[in-house]
Amino acid sequence: MVLDAGFSENMSKFSYFPSGVVDDNRMELYDDGDVRKMMSSSQEIEIMNLYVVREDDSFLDDVLVGEVEEEEPQDDGEEYDFYRHDYVESDDSDGDGDGDKIEFYVGQEFVSKEKCKATIEKYAVREKVNIHFPKSEKKKVQAVCVQDCCKWRLYASINSRSDKMIVRSLEGTHSCYPTGVVDLYSAPKIAADYINEFRTNPQLSAEQIQQRLGLVGLRVTKTKCQSAQQIMKHIISDEYAEQFTRMYDYVEELKKTNPCSTVILGTKDRIFEKFYTCFASQKNGWKNACRRVIHLDGTFLKGQMKGILLSAVGRDPNDAMYIIGWAIVPV
After folding, report:
1. 140-145 and 321-329: which strand pairing?
2. Hey, how many other C-beta atoms are within 10 angstroms of the C-beta on 278?
3. How many whole angstroms separate alpha carbon 132 and alpha carbon 148?
4. Based on CB atoms within 10 Å of each CB, which residue in 56, 165, 195, 276 is the most buried?
5. CA-CA distances (angstroms) from residue 142 to 132, 230, 252, 307?
6. Which residues contact 179 (CB under 8 A, 6 or more apart)?
7. 17 vs 38: CA distance, rounded Å
8. 0.90 surpassed by pTM
């Protein structure tokens, strides 16, 4: 059978396990007689997935020597494939998800140069390796690991046909130890990662940011964290300024959607000073159903914008608080 097919010179390179599992009882294939024995063994154990492997298969060296006892896979109704279940396919995506592993390969495409650089920067932060861009032209991107003796490097350029950035060459194995020093993780990127928390907790200090980054293996200087803190303060301040420029639009929208309501905006030299709101539905509800009692209260605003919040509160038939109107005034 095998001899007639002209494969006799390759028979000595194969072997199989008669029991159907990887164990010490390994049989070599040399001629047609060995093939017949293998076929009869498959009929006796009523399976056909005898593990026939090449003698020079380095991937199975640790299994063939019998030093590691392999755990048999659980039968979940699907036929177990020795090679498929031991091979993990690489993720060809650019790793946009927070939990995805970022991997690069030759021929990988990015929609733009900025997207390519952003993915490399994200990769450097996740792997905690120090990568620089020694050559970054309009249509080319070159990234290298600056650690001593590390050969990791990536080169990408624009495809003239599709205007996409394509990885042309890649040395994707790091020979360095991740030190946690990532120069690409700049203060603006730290600010972008912590801006949402800083909005709710303005007391977040540079030392706390540095400690949290250290817990995940990133070594960042205190000066860089202080710069990130200042950037977050400026961002929030600009957001407040942008919102206050829309106050007149906000007042007009309230009057349009709530007829007969009282909305007053007070400014001084076109700078916000005070604000008062009393919706018509709240006024009518208090007149028709609530007790003729009004409680006045106030509290200091301790956020980014200082002032006093005043409120007029009534009592409904269930003896619960009923908001009538509120105002913001300067201290």
Report:
1. unpaired
2. 19
3. 13
4. 165
5. 8, 31, 53, 53
6. 128, 129, 130, 147, 219
7. 9
8. no
Single-letter amino acid, residue 175: S
Residue 93 structure tokens: 């995506």
266 DSSP β-pair partners: 274
Q: If pLDDT is split at 50, 70 and 90, which confidence band does 39 have? A: low
Q: How far is CA 31 from CA 17, 22, 57, 220, in A?
A: 16, 22, 20, 65
Could you please report the per-residue DSSP string of 80-114? --TTGGG-PPPP-S---STTPPP---TT-EESSHH
Q: Rounded CA gap, 183 and 104, in Å? A: 20
Report, as an integer, the average pLDDT of 196-214. 91
Alpha helix stretches (DSSP H) within the chain: 32-44, 61-64, 113-127, 187-200, 206-215, 222-244, 247-257, 280-289
Mean pLDDT of the region 79-89:
32
Asked whether residue 68 carries a pLDDT value surpassing 50, the answer given is no
- List pLDDT tens digits, range 126-180: 999 999 998 768 889 999 998 878 889 999 998 877 788 899 999 988 888 888 8
Question: What does the pLDDT average to over 2-23?
Answer: 52
User: 133 and 141 in contact (C-beta within 8 Å)?
Assistant: yes
Cβ–Cβ < 8 Å for 323, 295: no
Average pLDDT across the chain, whole number: 77
